[in-house]
């Protein structure tokens, strides 16, 4: 913090910027009162970044919104104090608090796609904040808005200020939201999951931007996130929330080094690291309790491996100082238990999964293409264009969502597909299974050419190929019981009927970790993780050979995510299944896949075994992607490789190498004119790369790989 | 916007073509021989045949259709059998009156419905909302002509403020036109208000729960700015569709109201045409009503573009 903002004149430098005392916010619902923030207390200094983490529904956003009295009915702030500049914000009238909102305390919301008003220009949305709070003239406010946009790294801010939100990409919209937050130079920014909706490469840029701006302007940041990687990269202190309670607060390094609450330990362990190999992820079994029906004693007791009778019968443990440092924890046994040791994957024991790749692959895709017609045409993909103002002419326009993709999957193998949003991952899956008609290409299943088959033949093959989607809630029929959903799949493909069917449904449900009685319930009676288990049981019901998983854990909390990943691994070993696993989460992919394809703009840029893709030589895109992943370990800060600009439109892809517009290693003309082939750079390795660089060049400057060793020594040093 | 408009216009022309086919087909299936109808039951076969030849009714149907469409394109809608006047002229007279009534009714409706809908949404489930809902319910469930009768009884018969009915052309007496317009326009506007208000309310409710409204509040914007600037501009977009639809309904669909107020508009003309099997006139009326319907929809499309930049710029190369 080199400069402090002029608006913040704090008489006693020792008192914190914000102090929250015993905040209690509750919602009156039909099933009872939900206390979403229960007795929450913490403080935040100027220039400090505090993280607020926890599973979804833990009360993070409610806590943050309560600070500004932004709780709508049926919610109410039932008690506590929010001391800011010596005054209790909760005592403020609506008029008074309006002068604080956006002015002294700004909120940066989560979803860049829906948080900007679509009918107002981005400039207007920034300017109105400034004129409203600072009583400036419009011209002056406009200049200040352009400054704010420039500050957050929007190129050509002066020209783009009159554009509408839909003309910006997701990452740019998030920058606009931050610019709105910064526009009145607030003392405190509340950032509610500011990067959750973004790709890793964009996320890395936005987080760095926030860090930089903070250093420059010295405001405090309250960073709400469920991603411990984000915490490790940005925060000074951390608060962990569970079921409406703050269960631990600690200095950030201390939190990772020596967590004081068993829940914190569990959260840290559940995250698959991108540089560690596991057989099985450690899991936090169970799920967060329903807030209308909290357990008697410690809320975490049902999932806590250290729980004793005292935990279950006493009241809610209070947040009290714990451990040698400044940490506080809400656990009555915190002094007795030592949580310093995290989960160590026993690398000696790691049973290398053997995939036999000598025979024919189970599933093979050759040169698959899927073009969509650009939907804005006059009729179909025929579009009127008037280049240079001449006579309009009709043109054909395509979105090349998938543009010549080849890969294969062997029996018992998991092949992953990673890439940023919009690169065509889901379209590959849908087209390969013929849920969408491919534009071109060949697909073989068990040696049979699917691309030559008619609909009915494909339909009978579907039994062998199942899909599991990101959102289990919308993929399960809400009006059928779980038993009917799973049983119907068996009947449809003549696997079992009657009592045999029911017996097998019960077995399957137990296999995926649900009780047999789940068969009689409806999907909405289950949590997200349980619904995903049902979706998996449904896929397994027809005894498939291949399951395509499209972001199967992206909608789930880390602890639940680990449970589902383990389940997928177990049933693969048991049934000899193959998976095509689509994800944008690199840690997850690293954990579950045997081989991995990295996609960019409808093409595969690198394909190989996990070891090959995660080690040198790197495709320049893979390299930047890996470097952008925030490590959930503060001792391993990686050197990020920032990509210029954003992914080009698939309507108008670049010439030559698709990555050439952003590639930090671009070698000039060749990249701009010649499309690189996806080829084995060393014959026989099975490691395919699509780049004009030599192996040596692709192995240089792999900064984030080398820094690991260096950081490890620093980690020991730090203790 | 460019592609969008071209597509819209093309679509409109296609629809219009379709409407002419349907109109022509249906009016030709209607029972009753036109020549017989004109000449009366005592006509001789010869005179009937002569008249048919004169009217072109002896030609094959498709030739009759093409002749008719070609005529339409030149503004010639044929001659009314009943009035023995050019159809275009007959419709032209009533067109202005019907447009006047429809415009006035729609304007009244929008004037009351928008604020009511907005207030109802902002005060959801509170007294103003309940009042507005009840008002809407009454407006929708009581037939439009009944409102007409009530209005005549109260404002014309009891209070004597306005004439009970009839029409005075503005060229003769502009004030008279207005005083004659007030009651029918209000009665119709009253019924339309209910629909538009309900649409405004539900559209506002949806928009008010959007994330960008939450952000506007979090920026410290006052309730006024949040509602009128941030929410209304978004909420109005679906309302436009309803208003366009209501306008065309008010234009040609409320024969009964025209009857109640002796307002000689397109509605009554259509009814006369049907009753007297005046096929050229009927065809003309249907085409004009369809055209007005399409034009009001086109206006709605243009207004979308005005309010929604995503449409304004989408597909514009
Ligand atoms: N039905 C469609 N019509 C037109 N374009 C489409 C259609 N479906 C997908 N696309 C386009 O194809 C491209 C790839 O889409 P796809 O959904 O496969 O990406 P993805 O990598 O799975 O993205 P995400 O991670 O966001 O799910 C995108 O540019 C998208 O806009
Ligand atoms: S109080 Fe008991 S149950 Fe709760 S976290 Fe501590 S040890 Fe676990
Ligand atoms: S071909 Fe050129 S632009 Fe493409 S990835 Fe390789 S170096 Fe970069
Ligand atoms: Mg996808």
Kindly describe this structure:
By secondary structure, chain A is α/β, with parallel strands linked by helices. Chain A has four domains: 2-116 and 181-253, Rossmann fold, CATH 3.40.50.300; 117-180, no CATH class; 363-372 and 393-596, Rossmann fold; 619-714, no CATH class. In chain A, strand 25 and strand 26 form a beta hairpin. Chain B is built from 14 helices and no strands. Chain B has helices spanning 2-29, 34-39, 45-55, 61-73, 87-122, 127-141, 144-158, 174-208, 211-218, 223-252, 255-260, 266-275, 279-307, 309-313. The N and C termini of chain B lie close together (9 Å). The mean pLDDT of chain B is 86. The chains are: A alpha/beta (719), B mainly alpha (317). Bound molecules: adenosine-5'-triphosphate, iron/sulfur cluster (SF4) (2 copies) and magnesium ion (MG). Residues 425-426 of chain A line the site of magnesium ion. Chain B: It is a multi-pass membrane protein. Chain B: InterPro entries: BPD_transp_1_N, MetI-like, MetI-like_sf.
Write the layout of secondary structure elements.
The complex is a heterodimer of chains A (about 725) and B (about 325).
Chain A lengths: L17 E12 L2 E13 L4 E5 L6 H8 L7 E10 L2 E2 L5 H7 L4 E4 L13 H13 L3 H14 L5 H4 L9 H13 L5 E5 L7 H18 L2 E5 L3 H7 L2 E6 L2 E7 H6 L4 H9 L38 H5 L6 E2 L6 E2 L33 E11 L8 E4 L7 E4 L1 E12 L4 E5 L6 H8 L7 E6 L2 E2 L5 H7 L3 E4 L3 H4 L6 H11 L5 H14 L16 H13 L5 E5 L7 H18 L2 E5 L3 H7 L2 E6 L2 E7 H4 L6 H9 L40 H5 L5 E2 L7 E2 L5 H5 L3 H16 L1
Parallel strand pairs in A: 3-8, 3-9, 6-7, 7-8, 17-22, 17-23, 20-21, 21-22
Antiparallel strand pairs in A: 1-2, 1-4, 4-5, 9-10, 10-12, 11-12, 13-16, 13-18, 14-15, 18-19, 23-24, 24-26, 25-26
Helix pairs in contact in A: 3-4, 4-6, 6-7, 7-21, 15-16, 15-17, 16-17, 17-18
Chain B lengths: L1 H28 L4 H6 L5 H11 L5 H13 L13 H36 L4 H15 L2 H15 L15 H35 L2 H8 L4 H30 L2 H6 L5 H10 L3 H29 L1 H5 L4
Helix pairs in contact in B: 1-13, 5-6, 5-8, 5-10, 5-13, 6-8, 7-8, 8-10, 9-10, 10-13, 12-13
Magnesium ion (MG) binds next to helix 12 of chain A.
Family (chain B): Belongs to the binding-protein-dependent transport system permease family.
InterPro entries (chain B): BPD_transp_1_N (IPR045621), MetI-like (IPR000515), MetI-like_sf (IPR035906)
Main location (chain B): membrane
């Amino acid at each position: 913090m080199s400069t402090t903002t002029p608006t913040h004149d704090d008489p006693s430098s020792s008192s914190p910027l914000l102090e929250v005392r015993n905040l209690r916010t509750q919602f009156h619902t039909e099933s009872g009162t939900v206390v979403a923030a229960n007795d929450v207390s913490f403080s935040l200094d100027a220039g400090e970044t505090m993280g607020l983490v926890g599973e979804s529904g833990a009360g993070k956003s409610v806590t943050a919104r309560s600070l500004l009295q932004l709780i709508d009915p049926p919610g109410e702030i039932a008690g506590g104090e929010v001391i800011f500049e010596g005054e209790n914000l909760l005592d403020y009238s609506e008029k008074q608090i309006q002068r604080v909102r956006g002015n002294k305390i700004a909120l940066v919301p989560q979803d860049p796609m829906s948080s900007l008003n679509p009918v107002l220009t981005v400039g207007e949305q920034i300017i109105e904040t400034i004129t409203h709070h600072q009583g400036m003239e419009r011209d002056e406010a406009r200049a200040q808005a352009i400054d704010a946009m420039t500050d957050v790294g929007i190129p050509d801010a002066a020209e783009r200020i009159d554009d509408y939100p839909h003309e910006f990409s997701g990452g740019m919209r998030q920058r606009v939201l931050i610019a709105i937050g910064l526009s009145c130079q607030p003392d405190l920014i509340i950032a509610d999951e500011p990067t959750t909706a973004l790709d890793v490469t964009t996320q890395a840029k936005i987080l760095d931007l926030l860090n930089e701006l903070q250093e420059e302007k010295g405001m405090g940041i309250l960073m709400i996130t469920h991603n411990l990687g984000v915490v490790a990269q940005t925060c000074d202190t951390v608060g962990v929330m569970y079921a409406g309670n703050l269960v631990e607060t600690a200095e950030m390094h201390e939190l990772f080094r020596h967590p004081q609450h068993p829940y914190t330990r569990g959260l840290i362990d559940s995250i698959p690291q991108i540089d560690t190999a596991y057989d099985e992820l450690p899991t936090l079994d169970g799920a967060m309790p329903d807030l209308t029906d909290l357990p008697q004693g410690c809320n975490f007791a049902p999932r806590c491996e250290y729980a004793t009778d005292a935990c279950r019968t006493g009241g809610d443990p209070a947040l009290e100082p714990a451990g040698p440092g400044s940490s506080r924890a809400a656990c009555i046994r915190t002094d007795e238990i030592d949580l310093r040791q995290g989960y160590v994957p026993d690398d000696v024991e790691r049973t290398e999964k053997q995939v036999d790749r000598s025979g024919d692959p189970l599933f093979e895709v050759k040169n698959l293409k899927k073009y969509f017609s650009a939907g804005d045409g006059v009729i179909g993909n025929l579009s009127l264009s008037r280049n240079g103002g001449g006579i309009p002419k009709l043109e054909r326009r395509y979105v090349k969502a998938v543009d010549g993709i080849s890969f294969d999957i062997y029996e018992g193998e998991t092949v992953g597909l990673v890439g940023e949003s919009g690169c065509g991952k889901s379209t590959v899956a849908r087209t390969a299974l013929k849920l969408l008609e491919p534009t071109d290409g060949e697909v073989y299943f068990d040696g049979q050419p699917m691309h030559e088959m008619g609909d009915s033949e494909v339909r009978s093959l579907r039994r062998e190929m199942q899909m599991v989607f990101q959102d289990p809630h919308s993929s399960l029929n809400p009006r059928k019981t779980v038993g009917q959903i799973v049983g119907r799949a068996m009947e449809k493909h003549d696997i079992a009927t009657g009592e045999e069917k029911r017996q097998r449904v019960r077995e399957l449900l137990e296999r995926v970790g649900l009780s047999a009685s789940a068969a009689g319930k409806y999907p909405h009676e289950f949590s997200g993780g349980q619904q995903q288990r049902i979706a998996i049981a449904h896929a397994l019901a027809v005894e498939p050979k291949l399951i395509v998983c499209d972001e199967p854990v992206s909608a789930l909390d880390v602890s639940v995510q680990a449970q589902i990943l383990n389940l997928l691994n177990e049933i693969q070993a048991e049934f000899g299944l193959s998976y095509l696993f689509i994800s944008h989460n690199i840690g997850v992919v690293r954990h579950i896949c045997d081989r991995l394809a990295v996609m960019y703009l409808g093409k595969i840029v690198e394909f190989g075994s996990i070891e090959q893709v995660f080690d040198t030589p790197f495709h320049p895109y893979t390299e930047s992607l890996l470097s952008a992943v925030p490590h959930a370990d503060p001792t391993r800060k990686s050197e990020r490789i920032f990509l210029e600009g954003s992914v080009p439109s698939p309507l108008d892809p670049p010439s030559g190498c698709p990555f050439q517009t952003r590639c930090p290693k671009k070698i000039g003309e060749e990249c701009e004119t010649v499309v690189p082939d996806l080829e084995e750079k060393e014959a026989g390795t099975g490691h395919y790369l699509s780049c004009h660089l030599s192996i040596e060049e692709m192995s240089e400057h792999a900064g984030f790989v080398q820094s690991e060793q260096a950081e490890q020594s620093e980690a020991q040093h730090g203790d | 916007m460019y592609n969008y408009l071209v597509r819209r216009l093309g679509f409109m022309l296609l629809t219009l073509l379709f409407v002419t086919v349907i109109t022509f087909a249906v009016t030709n299936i209607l029972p009753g021989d036109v020549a017989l109808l004109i000449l009366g039951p005592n006509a001789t076969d010869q005179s009937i045949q002569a008249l048919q030849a004169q009217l072109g009714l002896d030609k094959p149907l498709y030739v009759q259709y093409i002749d008719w469409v070609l005529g339409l394109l030149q503004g010639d809608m044929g001659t009314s059998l009943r009035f023995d006047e050019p159809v275009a002229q007959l419709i032209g007279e009533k067109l202005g009156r019907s447009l006047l009534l429809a415009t006035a009714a729609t304007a009244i409706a929008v004037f009351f419905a928008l604020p009511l809908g907005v207030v109802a949404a902002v005060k959801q489930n509170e007294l103003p909302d309940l009042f507005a809902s009840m008002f809407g319910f009454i407006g929708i469930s009581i037939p439009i002509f009944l409102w007409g009768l009530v209005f005549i009884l109260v404002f014309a018969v009891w209070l004597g403020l306005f004439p009970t009915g009839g029409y005075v052309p503005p060229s003769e007496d502009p004030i008279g036109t207005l005083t004659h317009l007030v009651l029918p326009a209000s009665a119709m506007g009253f019924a339309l208000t209910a629909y538009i208000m309900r649409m405004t309310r539900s559209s506002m409710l949806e928009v008010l729960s959007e994330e960008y409204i939450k952000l506007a509040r979090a920026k410290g914007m006052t309730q006024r700015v949040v509602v009128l600037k941030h929410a209304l501009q978004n909420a109005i977009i679906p309302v436009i569709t309803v208003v366009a639809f209501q306008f065309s309904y008010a234009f040609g669909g409320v024969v009964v109201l025209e009857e109640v107020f002796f307002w000689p508009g397109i509605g009554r003309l259509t009814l006369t045409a049907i009753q007297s099997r005046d096929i050229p006139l009927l065809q003309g009326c249907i085409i004009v009503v369809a055209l007005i319907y399409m034009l009001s929809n086109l206006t709605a499309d243009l207004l979308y573009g005005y309010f929604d930049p995503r449409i304004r710029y989408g597909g514009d190369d």
